[in-house]
Amino acid sequence: MPTALIIGASRGIGHEFVRQLRAAGWKVIATARSDDALQALRDEGAEALKLDVLKPESLAGLGWQLDDEKLDLAVYVSGFYGSGGQATAMPTAEDFDKVMRTNVLGAMQAIPLIAPLVEARQGKFVFISSGMGSIGETESSHGWVYRASKAALNMAVKSASFDYPKATLAAMNPGWVKTDMGGPDAPTSVEDSVTGMLKVIAGLGPEHSGSFQSYDGRSIAW
Ligand SMILES: NC(=O)c1ccc[n+]([C@@H]2O[C@H](COP(=O)([O-])OP(=O)(O)OC[C@H]3O[C@@H](n4cnc5c(N)ncnc54)[C@H](OP(=O)(O)O)[C@@H]3O)[C@@H](O)[C@H]2O)c1
Is 102 among the domain residues? Predict the structure, then answer.
């Protein structure tokens, strides 16, 4: 039975990864912050572990709990949008720190802990980025702190891919998805986004390590 780790699985895209992977017969280890979300993950048949990516000691604890687990797939989903805003107003340090620490630092702290477990299975380590992190496709400054965080995440993924040659590391655009973050006007359902991402992930080989992928299979500019 293949094994997946989903980081940030309490709701939205992360929760749907758990649901679809369990339905496909995977062993799933999933993380969440609240006790209610952990119980809901156990009800889905996942092994649930408590993790707050804003707390380095919590990430270190995850590494310890995973011990010598071997992972065919790991997905870093945890993300925070922040207060939005654009380049006509100063971002607050508080908003900047929370967005950057959740979206970038958490992923960078997870990599040395998780990537060796993925290498043990020559597996895939996917990081949920965003089209808003694509410098090449940017057309406004709307949500610029979040945009900067996802562009930084992309660089973290690309650069880390050189240190873990037995794993395939990729950044992934999930589309604009109907979740708490994406809102009700988003054109893509969470089911379709995750189905698309799992199809793209299945097609990833070592030659795709350090790449930026999109859930619909189109190529996306860095
Ligand atoms: N929805 C979209 O249109 C869209 C588009 C592009 C990219 N994305 C990206 O896709 C990912 C998932 O987004 P979503 O739409 O599913 O958003 P969501 O419904 O707001 O879910 C966000 C997830 O991140 C978790 N999270 C936030 N802060 C965390 C922390 N400190 N430690 C651990 N987990 C934390 C949340 O856990 P709690 O329940 O504990 O808060 C929740 O599981 C994010 O990285 C987001 O940036 C989404």
Answer: yes
